[in-house]
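Archive entry. Fields below.
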Amino acid sequence: AQSVTQLGSHVSVSEGALVLLRCNYSSSVPPYLFWYVQYPNQGLQLLLKYTTGATLVKGINGFEAEFKKSETSFHLTKPSAHMSDAAEYFCAVSDGRGSTLGRLYFGRGTQLTVWP
Amino acid sequence: DAMVIQNPRYQVTQFGKPVTLSCSQTLNHNVMYWYQQKSSQAPKLLFHYYDKDFNNEADTPDNFQSRRPNTSFCFLDIRSPGLGDAAMYLCATSRDRGFTEAFFGQGTRLTVV
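PREDICTED_STRUCTURE:
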């Protein structure tokens, strides 16, 4: 079965500082991994995804994440935080390649606060 | 732009009064999902359609039903809303079940009074 653990329900950084949001997953099959961002009273927007190939994936708004199979991790980073990055971030894992179910399993989310 | 559209954005309903939330998509995706997201929690999958094939999650209450009359539209019906059903309801689509990503609508915030 698939599951996601996001370490830290709240992360606060200063504007310009490094952003690091942690995600560990459990999957019985080679996973597809995703990071979504959610602004207040909005839907989820895809930041980036890992399916196959290069383990360092780049997304929108300067975010990137690295798939580390040995650590079962998919941490999200951004070198320099901007005020507009303040939002809730969700890590998700899918059923994986060839799934006949197509479910997404979400972590509990990390609220990112950016201080001026 | 191709997208997933949910209506209404905000819905207030009375305790026990049936309510329907709608979702439409212009992506022509085969799969449509309904998620429930309560405050400060992860989205929880209620059910999904693969084309016309309905797939209910085991722990989705019977109070929640869904209809997909055609590829573009999907509805979430709550037969007798309780206070505990107040949440954000998110519709999403994906091209196929072995998908690479899901596309989400803006959500409908449901309040039960």
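CURATOR_NOTE: Chain A touches chain B through 28 residues (CB under 8 Å).
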